[in-house]
Structures are given as structure tokens and as C-alpha cells.
Protein 1
Amino acid sequence: MSNAGGRGTRHLFDGTGVYIALFLVVTALAVAGYWTLIPHTSPVQEPVVSEAAVPKPSVSPTTVTPGAAAPKPDEAQKPKLPEAEPETKPVQSVVTITLPPVDAADFTPAAPALVVAPLIGETVAAFSVDALVYNETMGDWRTHDGVDLAAELGTPVCAASAGTVIDVREDDLMGTTVVLSHDDGCSTIYANLQSEPTVQVGDYVTAGEVIGSVGGTALGESALAPHLHFGVTRNGEFIDPQDYLNG
């Protein structure tokens, strides 16, 4: 029996047995290498994080030292300014204005007022308000606020310019007197007329229209020959009648 077992063992390690053993070793090594090379992956579960576990960013107060430069704010924390709205221009509507036709005659400059001499006569007493002149009738020196134009009694006296009769009176020194008001701010005075002039207060007269006649009613100038006392005021001030007639 021992000889049979020994022969079996020797047969195992003979040529055929060696090959079988070598095959098994190689097969084992191949299987081991295969399992080593295959990646062993398992599903990864994402961790569940609760809101309580997430720390909230804390904002710490910033202390600014006087004199030190202020810290620059984080760009992410700067508040965004509202975007400016595009400028809109007001819509202007075109308005067409139609003017009524204008007559050229409406712009015709007014003709200068006609001024004429109240009568034709020699000047026997000139205008003088800056210097005293001798009055033969009164026997003294005084001013003379008009001109005396010599003329025969009854000589017609004309309005020097168009105007309105504003006064007809009997003056103690100058006798029967007529006053006309004119649009240029002037007034003309006609004195030493006959007692009944041909106009009354409120009448409108034109230049050259007769308003009375030469008389002898001026007691303050009775020493002179018959004449018309003619005076002119501008804005209430006496002016030289010759300047008014020649202006």
C-alpha cells in the first residue's frame, strides 16, 4: 500500500502535475489582479445641512478714529442708486396766430399842430418875467407875462391853435379875458378884449377861428394904445409867446 501511495505522489509532481499546479497559480493571480483593477464605487449621498447649522454672516460695527481716513465700503454692500430716468423734453405745440389786417393810415404820424398869430400888429410891450419893466399905467416896475400887440379897436382876434375854451372872465387889471387849452400842454391867454367875446366855456375852436376883438377893458394897461395882450403857458409856467408862435 505504501508503495502505491508513493507512486501516486511521485506521479503528481511529475510533468502533468506540475502543469496543473502552475495553471492554478496563474489563474489565482489573474483573478486577484482582476478584482484589484475593477473600481469599487458606491453611491455618494450629499450631506444634508440644516439652516440652523449654516452660520449667518455677522456685521461688526466699524469704529472710525477721528482724523483717520474712512474705510472704503465693500463694493458688494454699496446700495445701488436708482437709475436716472431719461430726460424728456416738453412737447411744444405750434400755435398759429392770425392778426387782423392793419390799415396803414392808422400809423400815419400826426401832423404838427398849426399855430398862427392871433393878429398882425407891432409889439408895444415885450415878454419879461426875469427882469422888471416900467408900467406907465401903474407907474411902477413889474414883470410882464405876455406881449402887447398894437391893433385898432374892434380888430378880430383869432385862436393861435386849435383848442377848447376853458375860461372866459373879467379880470380886474387885464379886462375881458379868454383862455384856451391845447393838446400839447399849452394854454393861450387873450386879454384886453371887448366885453362880449364870441365864444364861451366848453367851445372847441380851430386855429385861426375868431374868438373876440380888440377892446380897451384892461385897466392895468390903459395908458397904452389899443392892443391885444397875448400870453402863453406851458405846463402852468409862462413862456415867451414869440417862441410859441415861431416854434
Protein 2
Amino acid sequence: MNSMGLALAIIGASVSALLAGIGSAKGVGLVGEAAAGVVSVDPDKFSKVLVLQLLPGTQGLYGLLTAILMLSRIGVIGGNAVELSTAQGLMFLGASLPIAIVGLFSGIAQGRSAAAGVGITARKPEHNGKAIIMAAMVETYAILALLVSILLIYNIAI
């Protein structure tokens, strides 16, 4: 059994969860900082700013989903790991990169956009929906990256 191929695939799964998770953590933290200031002045705005804070958390979930799908596909989840060549392992590692990289950067970008939306909500709460839409636009690219990673994972011959 070529353990290098399997190791590369496991590294790929880890990278997808790790980088997308870092992006989400950074993004959620940025919004949390802005939201804490608003809620300290007006606690009634908590639910409005909470929605904005949740948005950048999705990239981490997409990275986790990618990792789980990859680990399942290669048999690590379930206890029957498949034999992978080094080339196959590199393909799985490559399949993790779209959501890993886009998740990292879009989580942070979405956090910045949502933090700006917290400012909108603080001044004009009736425009909260517009703030959510602006932050959600960043999500499009994370979803596209997730789709590419999933398509690649399930189209690698093993």
C-alpha cells in the first residue's frame, strides 16, 4: 500500500477544514467586535447583528463538509481506507484547494462586509436586510468553490 497517497489525501482534507475555518473564525470575530459595540448601546439590536455575525461562519462549515466528504470517499471514515497512488493523493489534495483558499479569503471578506453592515444596522435598523444582502453576496464565491471541490473529489478515479 502506498501510504504517501493516502497521507496526501488526508492532508488535503485537513487543509480544507483548516484554512476555511481560519477564514470563518477571523470573519466571525470581526463582526463580533462590531456587534458588541452596537449591542452594548442598544441590546434590542442583538438579533439583527447576530444574523450578520453568523454569515462568515459558513465558510468553515463548507471546509468541514469538504473534509468529511473527502475522508468518506477515501475510506478513512468507515475504517476501510483505500489504497491511493501518490498521484491520486495529490489530486485529492488539489481538490481541497478551491474551498480551502476561497474559504479563507471569503470568510475574512464577508466578515468585513458584515461588520460594515453592523454599522448600517446601528444607525438605520430598518436597512438591516440590505446589510445582510451585501454580506451574503460574498457567499456566492464560497459556494462556487465548495461545488468545485466536491465535483473534483467525486471525479477522481480510485
Protein 3
Amino acid sequence: MPSFPMPRGPIPRVLRTTSFRLAAIYVVIFVLSAMVLGAAVFWAARSALKQQMGARIETEMAFLREEFRVGGVDRLIAVVQSRGKGASALDYLIQDSRGVHLAGELPRVAALEPGWTMIDVPEASEDGGRPEQVQALTADLGGGLLLAVGDDFGRTSEVEEAIATAFLWTVGLAVLLGIGGGVLLSRAFLRRVDAIANTAEAIIGGDLTRRVPLRGSGDDLDRLAGTLNRMLDRIDVLMESLRQVSSDIAHDLRTPLSRLCQRLEDARMHATSMSDYRDAVDGAIAESEQLLDTFAALLRIAQVEGAAPSKTFAEIDLSALAETVADAYGPDAEEAGRALIAKVAPGIVIRGDRELLTQAIANLVENTLRHTPPGTRIELLLSDDPAAGACLCIQDDGPGVDPDDLPRLTQRFYRGEHSRTTPGNGLGLSLVAAVADLHRATLLIENRHPGLKVSLRFAQAREALT
């Protein structure tokens, strides 16, 4: 007869969770441990009961032998008859050499031998069932007179059965409670997981503002949710930055591209000599180089914003780095009619990227040289405050900037009204802001009246080891 597989329904989702599996594993381990412990307790209790029973019988036997020695058989029979009463009394048997039962509750035994033996008592059986068993110690008192003292072996069995029953109830309840607890934990776990999954689905659907709800318990899932929310915040910032870059490119690069196209069209329509063509080509090359510089700066900013701090960071002597930048731009400042003065505290060390920090400081110095008039005094200051950390400042006594422009100076391609006539693409301070964010530094731009002050504060600075 062919057999067909029985259809099996899907396993409930709550039983497939990690929390339920862990609870089930814990219950199995607990049951196995309880079984080992229960077996040890059972055998220890059984051994102790047997030892206690044997010690009681041996003590009674010693007492009766002493009574027989003092008073003979009559005295022994009288003592046995008086002591064989009561629920907790021992069982006795006095039997002569011919096998005649003289006294005691135990029945006559045909082949009774000295030592430990098991005696069946049919009269004590319940409803004609299995006879009661008595563990007895038999002693030969001389002349074939035998004395047996025993105790009901069923008492030991009752205690053993009680221990086994209690153990089974305990294990059974532990299994039920473990399964029930596993189900409850799994449901709570599923609610938290579903909240995370729903948030992820909403974000996949385009809602980047959704965040994983926190319960405030501080448990593992709460910490995971907090980490995911910080990751989503970072992704949101990067996406906003990408949208801003796309918008900035669309608006701010249209003008130089249009100018380049007009130059080429004008040369094609109006150039009449090699000199005209050469001038047009030179102008186009200059515009192209400016565009390439702009795209390189944008790429560099994107690389900085997407970099991981720990990958390129190392111990850097910020004091030596600031001195190097000041020495490099000192001749250029002097040639442009400006004074660049460095006041650098020695031995300030931070963790960071040497190349990026060098470029950020150089950008600050270049911006100051480009947007200040001749005769301006420029100061590059580096100090260390044990409470606030290292502070790198570039300040001047020039005209400063319009207060309305201060919050927008780090935006890509933004240039103040007074800066539109000077060379540049409006990305210098954007790169400085990106480098500051990568190094967990604070960038502060403020007017000095007169002049402008740009500060970078590094909270993790420490003194160099000597």
C-alpha cells in the first residue's frame, strides 16, 4: 500500500526567532543538568536511607542480644513482643533449630541463614498483591536459636518514589515555564524587530526621515536602534550634501561652461588670424583648467566627507605642521604686501590626517591673502587649553565680511559680494569645514572689527611626548 507524506503546516514565526531558540536551548540544558543532579540526589538519598535503616537494625540487634545474654529465651521473647508494636516499630522473628516460630511478626523462614536477607511477608500485602518485603539481619544466638530483626523495605521505596515524583514535577514545570517564557520573549523580540523592519521598509520606499523608535531601556536592541538612527542621520546628511552638490553644480558651473562655449563660438565666427585663434584657445584652456580645478575640489570634498576617521589617522605634531605652512606662505604674503606672523605653541599633538590638515590650514591662509588688501596683518595662532583643547586661528585686521554672509561662507560655491571680483570657486572653506567635521573639530568664523577670525578647535589634543 503506497504511503503519502503527511502535510506539514508552516512553523509559527514566534517559534523561529532567535530568542525562542535560545530559550529552548536553555531549557534543554537545564533539563539535562536537572536530570544529572536529580539522579545524584536520588542515589545519595537512597544510599543514606539504606545506611540509616541498617544502622537502626544493627543497634536493635545488639540490644536484643544483650537482653538474651542476661535473661535467656523467655526474656528475649518478652522484649520482642513488647517492642514489636507501633507504626514505626521494627519487625522481629525468633525461630528455634527445628524451624518453629517462637515470636515476632515475621513469618517462619525455612532456610534462614545468619546475615542480611530479604523476607517476604504475604500477610502484609494489600488486596492480595505483591507481598511486603522486609530487609532483615539474622543472628545465631547459639543452639540453633535464630533472631531476625528487620524493617519494611517499602518505606525506602516510598521515599524514592516521592523524590522521583517531585523531580519529574519540577522538570515538567521548568519545561512549561521555559517554553512559555520563550514564547513571551519571542513576541516581545518580534515587536522590536518588526519596528526596525518597518522603518527600513519606509526608508527603502523613500522616506529618509523615518527613524527606529527607542524604548529608553538601554538594552541591546535599544543600543542597536540608536546606532541605526545615527547611521541614518549620517546617510541623510550625505544625501542632502549630494543633492546640494548637484544643485550647486547645475547653477554655479553653468556660467563658466557658457562662457567657454561663447569663447569658442566667437572664435569660430569672428577669428580671422592665427593670433585670434591662439587667444581663443588660450582663453578656453584657462576656463577648462578652472573647471577642472573646481571638479577636483568637489571630488576632494566628497572624499573627505565620506572618509572613515580611523583609517588615515595617526599621531601628528600640529605645532610643526602649522610652522611648516606659515614658513611656506611667508614669502608669498610678503610679496603681496601683507605680513604673515606665526605664534605657535610647541609640542601640541593630535590624531588626524596630515595631508588634509595641511590643505585645510593652507586654504585658510590663501583665503586671507586673497581677500584682504595690501598692508593687512595676518596671524596664524596655535594654542592649547587643557580644558578646551587645541585651537588653531587665522585672523587678520582687514575689512572682514558682511555679517549676513558669515553663516553661508562654508556652503559650496558661495562667495560674498566683495569676493566675486577675486579668483576662486567658493570651495576653499567648504573643504575646511569637511576636514573639521572629519576630525571632530569645531569650525568658528567671526568678525573681529576690524578683520576676520577663523578658528579650528580640536578637543582631542594632548601634549607631545618628550
